[in-house]
Amino acid sequence: MGAPFPCIEVAGTHREVGRQIGEAAADLVTRGLAYYESSYPVLAGMTFAAAVDRARPYLAPAQAWAPQLVDQLRGLAEGAGVPFEYLFAVNCTEEFTSDPAGTSLRGEHCTSFAFVAGGRTYAGHNEDWYPGDIETLLLRRVTLAGGTSYIAMCPAAALPMTAMSGRGIVCTATTLYSHEEGVGVPNQFVLAALHESHTLEEARTLIEEAPRARASSHLLCDEGGRIWGFETTPGRVAFLDGGRCLAHTNHYLSLELAPQDASESEGTRMRLARAKELLSEGLASAGQGGAEGAAQAVALAQSVLTDHANAPLSICGHWDDDDPDLDQSVTTASMVWDVSERTVHVALGQPCEHEYLTYGL
């Protein structure tokens, strides 16, 4: 059965959109804050109060580069009746929990891919993060003043990480671990800014010019069949032309940035190899197009995202009861986008346990 989850539709300026989300999902926002407040000592090696203080230097770069997103977050705080500083700290969680100098080098944070089949573009993504996020997830359809629209599944307290826009662009991301880190624009803000791009070229400019705080991988695709990947450190960017199919997990693929790789995860290599294997096999026998071909392509993407090979280091990530470490990530949501149809198929939590529900933009 499909697991139900909240879905809201909001419109207006960034401030108004944030306020509407906060008002509609105040209980989810406060629940998410409570989870991170209790979990930060394990996940980040610091109290949540310390994280709020540590996040303060990141606000000025975020305000200078993406003031509209800071405004949206302020609206979210107003609508939910929570301190803005708390929400800002939660949106810096990747900086605090995925730091090579810190406590978490597990590296099991997301699998993304995109491919072209039957003349149409499809993308898939497993959001692998902390289990407390599952009960705070919110599917949001957003129309911003000026006409930009997107659909995103993410925790209510967070800016959107992965989304499909009404312009037929899907932006996904996976965590990377670089020896180069610093204070700059938090990655959550970089990811959210991409959903307003009119073209892949515009998104590329945003990625290249952002004064980034940390490393990240961005996998983007559009209705025209272009699949582009970008690997970053705070100061460098490498471009990957995906051709007709590209997959990415949590380590560098580009030769120029590979020396920066600080990942110690065995799972990221296993998940990438398995995704490439399944995609190669499936695309070799994919349909030529039409409704039947589209159904086959979506089914292929879902079969990759529900795969358990190499468990517990599998694409579909579950809590490992035999591992005493509480700093584990799990698959919190799974998404498959049919870009031509402007639809997303979403499963809450581990997709092997819940059927995908379909939503249009």
Walkthrough of the structure:
By secondary structure, the chain is α+β, with helices and mostly antiparallel strands. The protein has two domains: 7-97, no CATH class; 111-360, Penicillin V Acylase, Chain A (4-Layer Sandwich), CATH 3.60.60.10. Helices cover 35% and strands 25% of the residues. It has helices spanning 14-24, 26-43, 48-65, 67-80, 84-90, 93-97, 187-194, 200-209, 267-284, 290-305; strands at 7-12, 111-117, 120-129, 137-144, 149-155, 163-165, 169-175, 216-222, 227-232, 237-241, 245-248, 330-338, 343-348, 357-360. The strands form two sheets. An eight-stranded mixed β-sheet has the order 1-4-5-6-7-8-9-10. A six-stranded antiparallel β-sheet has the order 11-2-3-12-13-14, covered by helices on one side. A hairpin with a 4-residue loop joins strand 8 (216-222) and strand 9 (227-232). Helix 1 packs parallel to helix 4 (67-80), helix 3 packs across helix 4 and helix 9 (267-284) packs antiparallel against helix 10 (290-305). The protein is globular, with a radius of gyration of 19 Å. 53% of the residues are buried.
